Amino acid sequence: MIPVKLVFLICCISLDAFVYSNPQFDLLGGYDTFGICFNNCAQCKKLYGVYFEAERCAQTCITYRGKTIPDCEDISSIAPFLNSLDVLK
Question: Where is the signal peptide (predicted)?
Answer without folding.
Answer: 1-21
